[in-house]
Amino acid sequence: MAYVTERAVGQPAYQRLAADLRSQISSGQLPIGAPLPSVRRLVEDHGVSTTVARAAVNELRHEGLVIGQQGKAVYVAATPKEVAGRQASLDTLARQVDELRADVVKLTTQSAALARAGHGQDGQQGPGSGDLARQLKELRAAVAHLAEQLPAIDELRQQLGQLQAELVLLYTKVGFSYPPEMAGQAPASTRKRTGTK
């Protein structure tokens, strides 16, 4: 089965294979929790080498789309849309921190200019300069706090992704599909077996 498309011509073989698998994940052909075809199966179906098949799976793993170990089962952990949504949230937070930093620089410049202009011969500050200094101090504190939180937020997102992937594996191992019918509740088959409602 050939998977080369017009837009993929010129791409390395592993990227074309990864794009094909990514497309199957996006379309639902390979839903979350489903095992990825084995390396051997990918080699047979796509006419590529083992090295190419492994590189394609590694690319999907690096993107956060699949989890597991080669030689054992590798499962679909997320769709490209879900991964992009997580990345967009981090990008938005980083952009907000950058904007706050720019505001701090601007306010620092304004504060320095007001301080120079506001000091008369008697050494008294001009009107409003104390308020601006307070706002600048608060803004600096907010930027510092956000900057400190970025690594923690990124780490939490990674941990959440790992937990979700482990949950997908557990559902698969016990024979249930993921995600459950209702978030936060056990699947109907579990409710029947345990007697919970």
Task: Throw out a few tags for this protein.
two-stranded antiparallel ribbon, Arc Repressor Mutant, subunit A, 65% helix, elongated, 2 domains, mainly alpha, 197 residues, disordered C terminus, 6 helices, 2 strands
Structure description:
- With 197 residues, the protein is mainly alpha-helical.
- The protein folds into 2 domains: 6-76, Arc Repressor Mutant, subunit A (Orthogonal Bundle); 80-173.
- Helix content is 65%, strand content 3%.
- A hairpin with a 5-residue loop joins strand 1 and strand 2 (74-76).
- The radius of gyration is 26 Å and the shape is elongated.
- The two termini are 47 Å apart.
Main sheet: strands, sense, barrel: 2 strands, antiparallel
Number of helices: 6
Q: Which parts are unreliable, with pLDDT below 50 for 5 consecutive residues or more?
A: 120-124, 180-197
Tally of separate domains: 2
First CA to last CA: what distance? Answer: 47 Å
Q: How many runs of DSSP E, i.e. beta strands?
A: 2
Give the C-alpha Rg. 26 Å
Name the beta content range: under 5%
Spatial arrangement of strands, main beta sheet: 1-2
- Label the structural class: mainly alpha
Q: What is the helix/strand order?
A: HHHEEHHH
Average the pLDDT over all residues and give the rounded result.
75
Tell me the overall shape: elongated
The portion of residues assigned to helices is: 55-70%
